[in-house]
Amino acid sequence: MFLIFASQHNDNPMNYFSSDFKLGILGGGQLGKMLLSETRKFDIQTYVLDPSPEAPGRIACNYFEQGDLMDFETVYQFGKKVNLLTIEIENVNLDALQKLEDEGLPVYPSPSTLKMIQNKGEQKDFYVHQGIPTASHERFTHIEALKSALKNEVLEFPLIWKSARFGYDGNGVKVLRSMDDFIGLPQGECIAEEMIPFKMELAVIVARNVSGEIKTYPVVEMEFHPEANQVEYVICPARIPENIAQKARETALQVSQAFNHVGLLAVEMFLTNEDDILINEVAPRPHNSGHYSIEAGYTSQFENHIRAILNLPLGNTESKVAGIMVNLVGEEGFSGPVVYENIENILAIDGVTPHIYGKKETRPFRKMGHVTIVNEDLSKARKIAEEVKNTIRVVSR
Amino acid sequence: MFLIFASQHNDNPMNYFSSDFKLGILGGGQLGKMLLSETRKFDIQTYVLDPSPEAPGRIACNYFEQGDLMDFETVYQFGKKVNLLTIEIENVNLDALQKLEDEGLPVYPSPSTLKMIQNKGEQKDFYVHQGIPTASHERFTHIEALKSALKNEVLEFPLIWKSARFGYDGNGVKVLRSMDDFIGLPQGECIAEEMIPFKMELAVIVARNVSGEIKTYPVVEMEFHPEANQVEYVICPARIPENIAQKARETALQVSQAFNHVGLLAVEMFLTNEDDILINEVAPRPHNSGHYSIEAGYTSQFENHIRAILNLPLGNTESKVAGIMVNLVGEEGFSGPVVYENIENILAIDGVTPHIYGKKETRPFRKMGHVTIVNEDLSKARKIAEEVKNTIRVVSR
Lengths: 397, 397
Hints:
Strand content of chain A: 25-35%
Shape of chain A: globular
CATH topology of the largest domain in chain A: D-amino Acid Aminotransferase, Chain A, domain 1
Function (chains A, B): Catalyzes the ATP-dependent conversion of 5-aminoimidazole ribonucleotide (AIR) and HCO(3)(-) to N5-carboxyaminoimidazole ribonucleotide (N5-CAIR).
Protein name (chains A, B): N5-carboxyaminoimidazole ribonucleotide synthase
Oligomer: homodimer
Enzyme class (chains A, B): ligase
Subunit structure (chains A, B): Homodimer.
CATH superfamily of the largest domain in chain A: ATP-grasp fold, B domain
GO biological process, one term (chains A, B): 'de novo' IMP biosynthetic process
């Protein structure tokens, strides 16, 4: 009787709002910055650790600490200051996270998931063991072993080389067509992946909270520049038939559940010429492919990440309107204090919202911000996105 | 020739983004806090002045100063630190603002507009002179003069007494039906307004930038509690015929243009039983009646305030979906550290977004936050809003 009585009076199990509860975020880049927009909305106290004194996420947190995310002691001591820890970047000291979790601190995503995802070989093995469709692969502890396999005709060109660790934004991935393509590649652990022709790259973000409530965002499509082989537009919803969208969302759900993942999981996939879905890789955090949701979605990916790790009910992942995202990257030939040329021209277009990350210096191809274009009509949004891309320029003074 | 050449090369006239430009905001309450969400998005440097060391707008600005907004020297010295000054509250030292403007600092809204709006007698006179429809009124320098007018039958009960200065959220307004109703009223300058029966209270927010570009937000409706005579829901769009909505928006445009206003102007109005629009009063800043636009609008009122004062093109003021706002006020009988009881229950409903302002202590009727409900169907949103209102409770531990 007493226990029931006590439980009835425990009516604030989730008192995160304007309270003493402290959420720690490892990393204060643009993803951290956009997470902080949601923690401010809910008035949740946040502590941010980032190596840069000019990190975009320095402002709008309650406490900022400059420190090395790969240093055990720095991450461990930071973790001791907070009630729950999350990440906005995968490359953090996992031993510290593991020790914090062992000592009882909730850490989402879990260090064991992060460890598996950090190594692309392990990640691929995991998909195979779980029966999740993915291109076939071979693991090599050293690049020389891959060379030998090709020389001995155990493997054949062409194939895709991927560094097992620390790949980022297309770094650490290369198509190999002959021995000459090995020039300049790093020596370390890698995988060789079968090259499967595909007609589209898709992504689905899955939100899953501590209790296991799970929702998928709509399928987005990465549209590539016809020549430069660079993603130009992230388009939501993807221009694919409903049955394929359904299959993509189901496959993404399967991946999140297989990882027993808590928080957001961005699942990147290929749609093959035969309309099969193959998992490419995942990111266990808010992701570039979900930025459109700030303006287009009922609940932004950032809000749902916060809801998921705090075990709050997830928000509606569907969209109010169509959304397209264009990355703002530093133009070639410009390095120095950034200027967003013609930003006033794109602001004059209905449904256009620039996000400026707050990096003071531009460099060629550095991600400086993004622009979201929303419209009730996806094809109109697509036209406007092209206009935006052709108008704004990230240059230096 | 040289001048034309120079002008062609001045291609960054509006370099506010990740630059040294500093925007000053007088006041760091919830309106300031929500403005900062937009300045972070655009990475515009902000300086905030507020008397409270725990102001909601303390976090997410670049520089916070604690100080008295009514003190000449404090406001003047703060203004010298910034490149452009705006307000989130009307009650600030106007002499300091005037001196800053005279010395060349852009101040929006202008001190002269603020001065007129601060005095309800002057504000009402202005409407009369401008031919803007409003209930008829008489001005009195002292409450005794109003009493005499009633005793001498120059005026008749019932009428509406309004304090000329510092009215706020229903304070400073009272219906007088007999001499007994004078008990407890302050002595100072006031107006007596004709009591005109009306069927609805409406509001329209107008955004106008420095160049004179002007846009109105959709008409919102204030729905009152049937007994308590307190606004319960702000509903967008108002449930009125299109021709009346059109008339309300046109009247609001007329008011903004009459003031030559820069920034947001929230225009509160009555819809009479004869379907006439009468201006009640205005607020020269973001306003409670526009909070719904964060989730429902293409451009939130806060973003458009920033755009307007920086002379950027205005964003689309129309809505993606219907929106309803419910204020979160402290429950009677509770004072102390705040707890948002059952917030997890309302988060479980699709399209529901709580905004927690970050005030640590609740008091009866203190504005602690608001909740926005969005839905494609306004009547569904209205039902959910009622559920939200009946579920969440702002109490103390």
